Amino acid sequence: MARSFVLWLHGLGDSGPANEPIKTLFTSPEFRNTIWSFPSAPSNPVTCNYGSVMPSWFDIHEIPITVNSPKDESGLLKAVRNVHKMIDKEIADGTNPKNVFVCGFSQGGALTLASVLLYPQTLGGAAVFSGWLPFNSSIIQQLTPEAKRTPILWSHGIADKTVLFEAGQAGPPFLEQAGVSCEFKAYPGLGHSISNDELKHLESWIKPRLQSSS
Questions:
Q1: Which of 55, 71, 91, 108 is placed for a possible disulfide with 41 were both Cys, Cβ 3.0 to 4.6 Å?
Q2: 176: Cβ contacts below 8 Å, ≥ 6 apart
Q3: Is residue 122 a contact partner of residue 149, using CB atoms and an 8 Å limit?
Q4: What is the pLDDT, as a whole number, of residue 172?
Q5: How many C-beta atoms lie closer than 10 Å to residue 142's C-beta?
Q6: For residues 212 and 112, what is the distance between their CA atoms, to the nearest angstrom?
Q7: How far from 170 is each of 1, 29, 52, 187, CA to CA, in Å?
Q8: Which candidate, 210, 150, 140, 131, places its Cα nearest to that of 178?
Q9: With bands split at pLDDT 50, 70 and 90, how would you rate the model's confidence at 213?
Q10: Strand, helix or coil at 208?
Q11: β-strand 43-46 against 52-55: which pairing, if any?
């Protein structure tokens, strides 16, 4: 199996190392040659937490996040550029772009979405957990035909009180309208967290998409 790369982007106030146990659930032999990366967000003041400084990829103005929550597009695009550098490095090191998967939870899920949609190449896939659309609809004009071919898996707990289910539900229709393939999975009773069921489904979703050659 050729080398693959999974980039995991954590949520607000969290850290990369705290999420590393996730990779232990991916036990299929297809993941033997997978390189995992769990970067930590820089520390920034966060408006929804009264300006407190904490690990944050971009600013969040309010919690809970709804369909109509304000967006910090300039901060988001700065974070996207940093994610693109991580992906660029991995591809330069010899990984097939189709074997690159970007995954993220909550704020990291929103950043995952923006990062793959604005990346100039088709990647293996993106997985958004409890995320939202962190940009305005005008972003559609910036999407390349290559970016639109990256498949997206979107998972959201129906009982989420932090990023409301409606905010997640608004994502797939927006993506379909833009010509992006998105599978949406709703998890009854799940709040603002990631379940083992979601991760097991992610494993089975990535497996058939892995390319055997680099």
A1: 55
A2: 182
A3: yes
A4: 96
A5: 10
A6: 24
A7: 36, 35, 29, 16
A8: 140
A9: confident
A10: helix
A11: antiparallel
Q: Which residues carry out catalysis?
A: 106, 160, 192
C-alpha torsion sign, points 137, 65, 152, 89: positive
Q: What's the confidence (pLDDT) of residue 212?
A: 87
**At residue 196, does pLDDT exceed 80?**
yes
d(CA 75, CA 94): 30
Closest CA to 205 of 185, 178, 176: 185
Closest CA to 130 of 103, 176, 165, 101: 165
Render pLDDT for 175-191 as a digit per residue (tens, 0 to 9). Answer: 999 999 999 999 999 99
Mean pLDDT of 1-14: 96
- In tens, the pLDDT along 134-187 reads 999 889 899 999 999 999 999 999 999 999 999 999 999 999 999 999 999 999
171: tokens are: 């994502």
Q: Transcribe 3-71 into DSSP letters.
A: -EEEEEE--TT--SGGGGGGGGG--SGGGTTEEEE---PPEEEEGGGTTEEEE-SS----SSB-TT---
Residue 64: asked if its preceding bond is cis (omega within 30°), the reply is yes
In order, the DSSP letters of 131-185 are ----S-GGGGGG--HHHHTS-EEEEEETT-TTBTHHHHHTHHHHHHHHT--EEEE
pLDDT of 214 higher than 70: no
Return d(Cα 180, Cα 197) in angstroms, integer: 25
